[in-house]
Design a protein that fits this description.
mainly alpha, Secreted protein
Length: 195
């Protein structure tokens, strides 16, 4: 009985060996073999990392508006001022989200009866609060630089939620309103940072 079991085991092993040989790839003599090496995948270096643009994820429902040419020019001015201040993309996201909330990225002059005190420009900055003259505040480069100067004075702004960083600079009556613009601001920075 031992002999029968032994022969059965060997025949099964032989079938398994034969199955492996015939089921696997068959190399013909003279067929070149291919040296399979991993191929490096090019990462698009011209787009900022969305994880750095929105490090904490968005908070709450997000809003989005279509932008006209003037608003896009203001986005580009905010990005240029951020680069000139030698600040990272995250500072541009905070700045653009703040401007989206304050003015919808429109460089607002005096609005008469609809004006919030003497608030002007992209960030609704007030001459009476020391942000600058009306002419300065309505200059996108100047107003962004003034906002960024305030942001740099906020300890740990890089690690704060967007709405907390923006509110610390702006001191708004609606401190949570900035958060709704974070995704659009990040998308705009990703689109225009290297353009």
């Amino acid at each position: 009985m031992n002999t029968i079991i032994r022969k059965s085991m060997l025949s099964v092993a032989g079938l398994a060996f034969a199955g492996g040989v015939f089921a696997g790839p068959i190399a013909h003599a003279g067929t070149p073999t291919v040296d399979a090496k991993p191929v490096a995948v090019a990462v698009q270096a011209d787009k900022p990392d969305m994880g750095k643009l929105i490090p904490h994820g968005t908070q709450g429902a997000q809003s989005r508006i279509d932008l006209n040419d003037e608003q896009v020019a203001n986005v580009k001015a905010i990005i240029a001022a951020t680069k000139k201040a030698d600040l990272p993309e995250r500072a541009a996201v905070i700045s653009i989200a703040t401007s989206l909330q304050e003015s919808k990225l429109e460089n607002l002059g005096h609005l008469g009866d609809m004006n919030d005190h003497d608030s002007l420009g992209l960030f609704q900055q007030r001459p009476s609060s020391g942000w600058g003259t009306p002419e300065q505040i309505t200059d996108p480069q100047y107003s962004t630089t003034a906002f960024l100067k305030g942001l740099k004075q906020v300890d740990g702004w890089q690690d704060m939620a967007l709405t907390d960083a923006a509110q610390t600079v702006q001191v708004s009556a609606y401190p949570d309103a900035y958060a709704q613009w974070e995704q659009q601001a990040a998308d705009l920075v990703a689109q225009y940072w290297n353009s």
